[in-house]
Amino acid sequence: MDLRTYDTPEHAAARERFAALPANAVNWIAVWRRNYLVWRKLALASMFGNLADPMIYLFGLGFGLGLMVGYVDGVSYISFLAAGTVASSVMMSASFESMYSGFSRMHVQRTWEAIMHTPLTLGDIVLGEVVWAGSKAVLSGAAIMVVAGALGYASFPSMLIALPVIVLAGLAFASTAMIVTALAPSYDFFMFYQTLVLTPMLLLSGVFFPLEQLPAGAQAATQVLPLAHAVALIRPLMLGRAVEHGGLHLAVLAVYAVAALLVALVLLRRRMLR
């Protein structure tokens, strides 16, 4: 039923529930808390799943390639890789939560429709979902950072300054993935985003090797990739070095977080009104 074709008070109230913007600054917390209460029942399995893959990359490539590569930018290869692994884990965790879990709650379980029978609007729900996905990403990234610090692959306490960057990066990737969720007809659609966007970004953003090793054209293209800016901020902070062009990197991540969220809100409102 298309609610836009009705003018009765009942349908006007229904349209308000489908408002693209959050009703206020705190309603999203209820959605975040709802997702947290569901997640904590399977918290251990969820955390293991989020950490297993990046840890395999860290230690498998770190010790394997590290023996051949030796040192990169003045540090051991595994130390160089640790910061990239933190950033890539944030990207993957936020993206997968926004896509697969978000799509399940929106389309399969119809949890969003149930929530919109409360005073919460669609904007509140989407904001809560994005912050929740960003929260899970922070948990994954911070856990890897702690392991790296405990093993001597990161500098303490300077690595703690990277936590706000991880938060911002998590929101940026969660918001961007929410656009994909708004457009997805089924779970299979997410494979296109994973294969055509996430995987190339993983390989071109300085996670596994310095960006200077890329051709000039590819280096220029990386300037629009959020993961490249996240790595550029997280790596020096974890290694106890000064950050170059920090304002630019933060601005790019902030633009992705805000602009992608606004686009996702518009697309999701259009989808839910069909």
Question: Could you explain the architecture of this structure?
Answer:
The chain has helices spanning 9-17, 28-39, 43-69, 77-108, 111-115, 122-150, 162-183, 190-204, 216-221, 226-239, 246-272, and strands at 71-72, 75-76. The radius of gyration is 20 Å and the shape is globular. A hairpin with a 2-residue loop joins strand 1 (71-72) and strand 2 (75-76). It is 72% helix and 1% strand. Helix 6 (122-150) runs antiparallel to helix 11. By secondary structure, it is mostly helical. A two-stranded antiparallel ribbon has the order 1-2. The protein contains eleven helices and two strands; from the N terminus they run H-H-H-E-E-H-H-H-H-H-H-H-H. The longest helix is centred in the middle third of the chain and has 32 residues, at 77-108.
Count of helical segments?
11
Which structural class fits the helix and strand makeup? mainly alpha
Q: From N to C, what is the helix and strand string?
A: HHHEEHHHHHHHH
**Adjacency order of strands in the biggest sheet:** 1-2
Low-confidence stretches: 1-6
Any idea what the shape is? globular
Mean pLDDT rating: 88
N- and C-termini, Cα separation: 7 Å
Question: What radius of gyration results from the CA coordinates?
Answer: 20 Å
Content of β-strand: under 5%
Give the total of beta strands: 2
Strand count, sense and barrel status of the largest sheet are: 2 strands, antiparallel
Helix content: over 70%
